[in-house]
Amino acid sequence: MTRSARPSARRLRRLLVPLLAGTALVAGGLGASSVALGTPAAGHPAARTAYAAGNPLADRPWGVYQGRGDQAWQPYAAATGARKQLLATIALRPKAKWFGAWIPNTQIAGKVRAYVAASQAGNPEALVQLTLFAMKPWEHDACRRLPTAAEQASYADWTNRVADALGDAHAAVVLQPDGPFALCAPGGSTVPSSMIAAAARRLSAQPNTSVYIEAGSADWPAPGRQGGVDAAVRLLVQGGIGSARGFALNGTHYSSTVDEVARGAAIVRALEARGIVGKHFVVNTSSNGHPFTFGSYTGPDPDNAFVCRTRSDPLARTCVTLGIPPTTEVADPRWGLPAATRDLAAQYVDGYLWFGRPWLYRQADPFVMARALRLVASTPY
């Protein structure tokens, strides 16, 4: 995600959604792939599909982590009544929890084990989801300097500890969001990509871990000289796609599911042309219920895009709301996708996942209550 400066002293001024209307919105927006409202869930039933043969994410329950490690959990647990029902749309859906460099090497294994245990809730067949974000330097800093030898060694050690902690758990791992920053390493160096490749190999060596290397979005890398699909393929080849299940798209952008599926299918076919076959991908749909191109955002900070005011917000061409709920039923007509998109999704997409976090300030921290409530109220799903 191309980072912009933080907004000035302007603060989000969000009114709470009308709670009487909110209850109906939750009931309509949850869909068949969601847990029952207000009920602690041992696991989230992933949608079953006839075309999901060989899909490691399908035909098993999806774990829902319920604990302080999820910024949405405590606000939900403390809420009551209609507000609790609204927040359940976020808190009780299976999401890929972020683990990053802010967790020391000495603590990461314990935190991953605790997360797996809490998410599985006693069911070893339940799928757990993680987003790993431990590369240093990263984002714009990755364009200015390369990782030091100590940082490279620390990253490898950190990743080894994550892999050991996952053990034989069924896991979907999104590896290094904002992946295109690996392409801007000084001097065209492939050091960051080689680190990601080593992490992909190590994690994929676990018996039930499916790794999806983040490859940007349909609008990033942008088309142009050596851009677009070609740049994404270069990123993935350098980043070790050969040893991974596939790749991930749209982690921090807001591009439409239609565009993401088309981009992903083009990447798969380009990989096949290079002899790298059998790859699939996942799409983050937590943030694209009202899709727009990141570079066309009309507000001050696209990383903290304004939330849509209604399910159809004609006055806000660029606003964010929740998209398709987490599911492996990627070609289901209820999502309103064109037939061509459904056909491509059925062939190449393992799942629509929620590894973006639009309910957090700048998609990072902290949880913003008014923002979360508006996201739930305005989602078309």
Automatic annotation (TrEMBL):
Record-given protein name: Glycoside hydrolase family 6 protein
Keyword Hydrolase in record: yes
GO biological process: cellulose catabolic process
One Pfam family here: Glyco_hydro_6
PANTHER family with a match to the protein in the record: 1,4-BETA-D-GLUCAN CELLOBIOHYDROLASE C-RELATED, PTHR34876
Keyword set, alphabetical order: Hydrolase
Taxonomy, superkingdom: Bacteria
Any GO MF annotation of the entry: hydrolase activity, hydrolyzing O-glycosyl compounds
Organism: Nocardioides panacis
